[in-house]
Amino acid sequence: MDYALIHNLGVGFGVALSLQNLMYCFFGVLLGTLVGVLPGIGPLATIAMLLPVTFNLSPISALIMLAGIYYGASYGGSTTAILVNLPGESSSVITCLDGYQMARQGRAGPALAIAAMGSFFAGCVATVVIALFAPPLAEVALKFGPAEYFSLMVLGLVGATVLARGSLVKAIAMTILGLLMGLIGTDVNSGVARFSFGLSELSDGIGFVIVAMGLFGFAEIIVNLEQGESREVFVNKVTGLMPTWKDLKDSSGAILRGTAIGSMLGILPGGGALLSSFAAYTIEKKIGDPSNFGKGEIRGVAAPEAANNAGAQTSFIPLLTLGIPSNPVMALMIGAMMIQGIAPGPQVMTERPELFWGMITSMWIGNLMLVVLNLPLIGMWVKLLTVPYRLLYPAILLFCCVGVYSLSNQPFDVMLTAVYGLLGYVFVKLECEPAPLILGFILGPLMEENLRRAMLLSRGDPTVFFTKPISGVLLGIAIVLLLITLAPTVRKTREEVFQE
Amino acid sequence: MQIINGKDFWAGLMFIGFGLAFMLLAQNYPMGSAVRMGPAYFPTVLGGLLAVLGAMVFFRAFVSRFAHPLKVFIFRPLLLVAAIVIGGATYFYFADTQLKDAPMLQMLQAALALLSLLLFIGAFGPKSMFLILLAVVVFGYALKPLGLVLAIAILIVLSAAGGHDFRNKEVVILTIVLAVFSVYAFVKGLGLPFNLWPGA
User: Fold this and answer.
1) In a 10 Å sphere around its CB, with 0-12 CB exposed, 13-18 middle and 19+ buried, how is residue B160 labelled?
2) Number of domains in chain A
3) Chain B: nearest CA to A420, how far in angstroms?
4) Which residue among B46, B60, B132 sits closest to A397, beta carbon to beta carbon?
5) Looking at the domain assignment, is residue B142 inside a domain?
6) What is d(CA A164, CA A491) in angstroms, rounded to the nearest whole number?
7) Staple A276 to which of A262, A316, A378, B31, CB 3.0 to 4.6 Å?
8) Are A240 and A110 in contact (CB under 8 A)?
9) Predicted confidence band at A497 (pLDDT cuts at 50, 70, 90)?
């Protein structure tokens, strides 16, 4: 431990422990858990709705609250996954597999407790990881030129496609479609309004909240309604919360491995909570006895829950050091920082240390609050889950609509969201995963901008992306990643993994 | 040649369509050179790439290892015919009419165009999708003129009608609860600038 780190953490705790910030942190994690528990409404819609409000807060309070919503949601999502077999939040999809089986065997209590403990442990470790790795990364990032940024984004997009579900070609196509949609609006270099069909509403581009809300929020409701609902809540069976010694012994290794995987994957642009949990589960299955998994194996709950929480938190690293969002929620965080007049990037750490370290320490405090909040309040969350879907989805729809409308008070935005809802339904029907599209959409303009600058600097020589060392390495990793995925054996296992 | 994977077939066509559309639309802007890229450069390259990938997905539909029926979407021919008739009639009737000074006619044209679009969507999608999207769009456009409370009522009733199990009493209670909640949480609490009632 060097002295600077302790000093920095001290500054952070000083900020995060102020009464006002503690309050916003608590409010954030509480709200996050709530939306995490409720299936169909996620952190994205919630943060979008609160974005206009944060204008009146101090920058640090706003960021602490919004961050709390994000990791709080990944916490709450596990409760729903275990009790209802529905992911309350997309990152807990994998927890359904074994968590729900445990609940059916009357072991919902231990499953919930292990999920909470795993998440808490992962959250603590991830906080330290951010504190340790963000500063050196930011220093490297200060040396990044346009070529390096471009290559980094290519790597992020490749990462997202490789880890997307289903066909690789379709995932790449979806990424490119996302990049193209991101280009809609005024071109910064020439001032031309591209693909706007003469509509002034489109000349500023399409907000990512609109795209994300349509593709995920609306489309999910439509698909759920088409399929009809089948829910079974294990309300009465949540009795003893305490896991046995055997549970703890079994899951401790899984929690450690999950935390490590989550912390690493979260850092990658395109990584984050969802991918981490998938990867962690797959590895647990490789290590343990595969025949137990899917039948209530506690390690199948512990590892992905630890991983998704670690990933949720370390995905702040690319945002804070490079100014690049690794997922839609991080893109909203950029929006929140812009509202406060802060340009995200490596300079935040040196220019506004209290902001950076305050946010990191607040994450640790928030995780502590979540454990205290989640275990005793489990009964209340369970009650919420007994609300039937037919009452829930109109409410979700309303919150999404209010969130979209409040972005700029334009009915046109709401209609555009409906268009994306329609597209999202088509994508689901055609088995095209929308997650890579969103990432492409966010990165589209950034990528074009950096490509143009890099080409201008190199006088039109495209080899610059390979001859600059950092850029070359990043592109090299991207190419290797793609080639590995195309190799026949990996392709087969990948298909098997995502079949589940 | 036989189509084995219907999902790949349609997905391929969709990607090809999007790719070509972006490429063609981009040709309205200056292309520039590799050194100084114009606004058309990046979209043209990406659009071409998307079309090629789309073609790959399309041809895979004929050799795929996974079989899916070609009929992925619902198809209601009657609604499609109605959409084309109304859309076409609106287009030709208003083609040479001056609309600048006639706001009523303008609104009629917009309404008919919207109706035709909705019928078109209804021809290929399930009922729930149709009603959910309709509810959302109506909410967006009703919020300002009708106020938050009535817009919520419309949204809830329409979207609830998109479900499987519409219970009058429940829908009324849900509307009241959500309206009260929204007024206090969004307007009073968060300070969002919405009218509560028509004209207020």
Assistant:
1) buried
2) 1
3) 10
4) B132
5) yes
6) 12
7) A262
8) yes
9) low
Pair (B118, B156) in one structural domain: no
Q: In terms of CA atoms, which chain B residue is nearest residue A420? A: B133
Give residue B173's pLDDT.
Answer: 92
pLDDT surpasses 60 at B146: yes
Q: DSSP code of A243? A: P
Decide: B155 and B131 in contact? Cβ < 8 Å: no
The Cα A106–Cα A293 span in angstroms is: 17
pLDDT of residue B155: 94
B128 and A170 in contact by Cβ < 8 A?
no
pLDDT digits (tens, 9 = 90+) for A281-308: 888 888 877 777 777 788 888 888 888 8
Both tokens of B16, joined, read: 């090809």
Other C-beta atoms closer than 10 Å to the C-beta of A289 total: 9
Is residue B68, in this structure, part of any structural domain at all? no
Interface of A with B in 168-187 (CB under 8 A): 169-170, 172-173, 176-177, 179-180, 183, 187
Q: A402 lies in which domain range?
A: 3-499
Residues of A in contact with B132 (CB under 8 A): 218, 221-222, 225, 397, 421
pLDDT bucket at A153, cuts 50 / 70 / 90: confident
H or E stretch covering A186: strand A185-186
3-class secondary-structure state, position B68? strand
Query: Residue A237 above 60 pLDDT?
Result: no
CA proximity to B128, closest of A425, A38, A403, A232: A425
- Residues paired with B68 in a beta bridge: B5
Q: Is residue B167 part of a domain?
A: yes
pLDDT of residue A434: 83
Residue ranges making up the domain that contains B26: 6-60
Structure tokens at A107: 């072991």
Question: What value of ipTM does the predicted structure carry?
Answer: 0.90
Rounded to 5 degrees, what are φ and ψ at A415? -65, -40
pLDDT range class, residue A172, cuts 50, 70, 90: very high
Contact B140 A390 (CB under 8 A): no
CB contact under 8 A, B43 and A194: yes
Same domain, B155 and B195: yes
Q: Is B29's CB within 8 Å of A190's CB?
A: yes
Rounded to an integer, what distance in angstroms lies between the CA atom of residue A303 and that of residue A288?
A: 12
Quote the pLDDT of residue A271: 59
Q: Report chain A residues whose CB lies below 8 A from the CB of B140.
A: 401, 404-405, 411-415, 418
pLDDT at position A500 is 46
Q: What is the dihedral of CA A265, A270, A274, A275, to 10 degrees?
A: -50
Cα dihedral angle (A407, A413, A417, A420), rounded to 10 degrees? -120
Gap between the Cα atoms of B137 and B127, Å rounded: 16
What pLDDT score was predicted for residue A165? 66
Q: Chain B residues with CB inside 8 Å of A404's CB?
A: 140
